[in-house]
Predict the structure of Adenylosuccinate lyase.
Amino acid sequence: MTERGPLAAVSPLDGRYARYTEPLVPYASERALMRARVEVEVEYLIALADLDATPLSIDDDQRATLRALYEEFDDEDASVVKQLETEGYGEYAATNHDVKAIEYFIRLGMPEGLDAANWIHFGLTSEDVNNLAQRLLVKPAAETVLVPELREIRDALVEMAHTYADVPMLARTHGQPATPTTFGKEMAVYASRLGRAITRVERAAESLSGKLAGASGTYAAHIAAYPDVDWPAFAESFVNDLGLEHEPLTTQVNPCDDLAVLFDALRGANNVLLDLDLDVWLYVSDRYLGQEAVEGETGSSTMPHKVNPIDFENSEGNLSKANSDLVFLGDYVTNSRLQRDLSDSTVKRNIGAAFAHCLIGYGKCQNGLAKVVPNEQVMADDLADTPEIIGEAVQTILRREGYADAYEQVKKATRGREVTIEDFHDMFADLDVSDDVRAELEALTPTDYTGIAEQQADDS
């Protein structure tokens, strides 16, 4: 059989997009899960040795040797674990069980002089190991891969907000011309929203929790062996030492509400970026934004002139796929038949895929933002061609001056009609207002009617 490479991958994540998803390999791959399981089992073994109740003793050199099993875990080690599971290795027959294969792998690497095979996986169920190992991967994947990418986007938006704080732009509500804004202020809105979303993701990742309570969550096997040990306190200390919060009351499985919170937080961040992708796409379509052409890049296979907003389209597609996966994952992993069923096991293996679509979407959004430049002349021309948008300011000033029917007057003069700035000035000439108020009205222009948008952008 020909060795499979990226061109034979059944998923674009390991094929076309493999170069973008590489940062997640240490956290989302099968090898990574194996390594994390070894870490949990080794640290648990060492923690048992630190209990006064057990006769187990592990010296410093032996601890270093044990920890090297996961600290130096490589492809060859992963291959051994896989062989232990699927075909057997050395004295061990095939386990057909991925966690049992980890136990045998540790036995094979046991330090010289340490007879501790009976203490590996002592009193545990596979879910004790798996739920901790998965969170040891999910937590840094979110904190060190996804969040920094989100921060890059936020930083880019803040820079755009400051650079273009004073560039006036026609706003559209319901797709129709509305009170002007500035391009910088609109980017500031996204920067602010994304900042809040990032905080939610960080809090959710920081709050991931693990369980270590045995086959039904009752510590039954542990207490049967050592009834005088405070096993819940031991479990809490152990889980905390792994950098996770402790989940004290569970069935066999960790209920995974913590993962659901993280998935929802990521989906919230993705929704901000999806909104951004769609808006920027429309700004490009309206020629409010130009795009820098990439040397050698083909925009269209038939129309040579085109520079398509492909990065935002790609981001939109990947983030939509990520959100679909995140909703599914959040709904699925929080349910289990009675105390345990295995259907969640295969589902959880797809967490990395959801994260990968997030990562691709973030990178594409960054690429797109780096290419767009506001077309200030197009924006200015559009404002000049839409003088009716100062109608809001006119009717508000007239209300201030006591005109009860100000809204109706301006509506009659502007709604559904093509209006010029001169039409407004003719209306102002007939108003019963002071010269100062008339001058105030005549000074109104679409370009200057942006409120404190510039300040809002600068303060972002």
